[in-house]
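ingest -> validate -> predict -> emit
validate: passed (alphabet ok, no gaps, 701 aa)
predict: started
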Amino acid sequence: MSPETILDMITFNQLSMKDAKVKLMESSNKKLLNYFINRDKITKEPMKESELSQLNSIVNILQALYNSEHDSPISDTEYETLQEMLIDSGIPRLVSDNQINDMKKQEHSYQQLRGSLNKIHYLTKGEIATNPSRKYLDDWIKSAEAKYQKATGKSINLNDETVICQCKFDGASAVLEIDSTGKCVWLTRGDTNNNLATDVTHILRQFNDLYSHQTNHGIKFEIMCTEEDKDKINELYREKNYRNSRQVVTATLNSKEADFKANYLYPVPLRVMSKEDNVEHIHPDLMRDFPNLTCRLSDREKIKEFGQQNKVVKRNGLSFRTDGVVITLTNPEVQRILARENNISMFDVAFKFTEEVAYSRVRSIEFETSQFGFIVPVLVIDNVILKGNTIQRCSLSNKERFDELGLCRDDMIEIRYDIIPYATITEKCKRSGKSRIEFPSYCPSCGSLLDLDVVQVQCHNKDCLPIVIGRMLNWCENLRIHDLGYQTLETLYRDGLLKNGIRSLYKLKNKQLDMEDLPGFGRLKTRKILREIESKRRLKDFEFIGSLGIEGLSLKTFETIFQEIPYMTFLELMPSRSLSSLYDLLVGIKSIGEKKAELLVDYLRDGANRKEIDKLRNELSVEQTFGQKLGLKQMAFTGIRPDKQLQLELESHGWSSDYNLTKKSMYLVVPEDGHESNKNKKTRRLFGGFCASNVSPGTWA
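emit:
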């Protein structure tokens, strides 16, 4: 199937993105891809019209894959090579998100906010371009100065101009449009040529309260998912393993219905404009909350250092991926004159980071069983040093990725390294010709037979050591029982002190002397561990059931369930004969739905699981929370999150603590005087400026 046909079929919803990726990687198209990527080395002849058509279709397909949950099969470097070839041939840069779904479409009112940026990869001429299609900053300056002179008849030295440098976040673009009444509509960048975008308000409306007061404005965002939250989602959602945080965002925005992943999205405001503005402005929240640098355009070393320091941005303990630096000329007159061209801002430029690449030899592939029983192939290679880090192991995530690479011992492999190492095969990689490494048919930890006809191969033996330890570790992490990591739990288990799983934790106080005799424990550590465990005998209902490690169901899900279903009713409906009634109650709860209800009911169908719950209840004092929050006064937090101990203290005094600010909130707690955030602004708007700061627990009674 030709690239032109593939593009037509995905445009008219006749081919899924998953199948499009498969078709694009068929032998004939793969050869075509490699030809275009290496064309500059093969021939200097200009491209024929037929070649331009093929290349244009390929770039459009790759852009669609990039904006889907399936991701591009080639690197960003290779994609940019292909796109720059089109630009050099007179075809404008592709800035659209291909419309690959049938969700509601709408035109942009603030068209200036939906475009893209020119990209450069080198700040100084002293840097050697490894790819001839990549541009230098001086190339962009020369083009912008020529445009300025043509428009004004005057010359300008842009190197003397002041610029603001901000992080280029690696997420997905969205625009929020707020009308005069405060109504909010969230749109993707969409088809910029036809000014047609997808309405994703159903996914992002949870953020309306933060920005709805900015009436008659448009705001451009980069929708992000932090690295920590991406890891959580990969643990909760095993139907697909997301390679990077951007994949989480694009998959969520392409959903017809909001699912749990929407709760992990984070909108970073980039630009804002009103109906009267001719050009967009940097959003003040971006300047306040995230790193930025003001300097002259000639300060190349400062710009480079800023980029190197902010490849991962930390905010409130969370990690945001960046893939470059956005450099913005601040002179309003220069902005007005340079303006936009082909939906591209001409007074901004993106300095893109280059991922480091090395080649190594496959030594072996080890197979590890994760705490949830998933079999993870880990590639072991000869040591390579990338960005100052020695890389010798690289996760292949799952069997699908393992099969895709089809590796043999002593094969050459390309290792790309940005934040985590990523292994791939390119035309430069030589195969050894040895027999292919096979995926094991049996669990490497317990020897149980595995089903290999799935993407995520999983051991289902409940007695498999990593799974047993994993359940206890999940319990300890959810309840914040400190000093009990995986290795400590494994030591206690192997010594026979945790043979009955989670409930064995509450029997350890009777085995204190045995613990103290274990290597690395001693009296002090043992007493500390026992104090931690004993402090967690009194639990709320959602903490109890939500910490059992039921795959795909979070603590927050059970908090919602037990607000709607009394704990005692839940226990009465646990027997197998009553599970259908429990299912009906669960489906009726907003935000639970059929999938989550089935996961919980399936877990309870197993008599061993029900028996474990009953036995564990004998060790605990469980508090029912049904309807409890309805009568609580609400307190919101910004810049800090209340820990479990503080939440319990607040609730004992009649307060509900929440990270979200609503009209029902009576206090907003900030970490220190002078702290500013969107919630502070919202507090002033809703409550006339009343804001509580540094409040001590004694004053909440």
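The domain at 632-700 is CATH 3.40.50.10190 (Rossmann fold).
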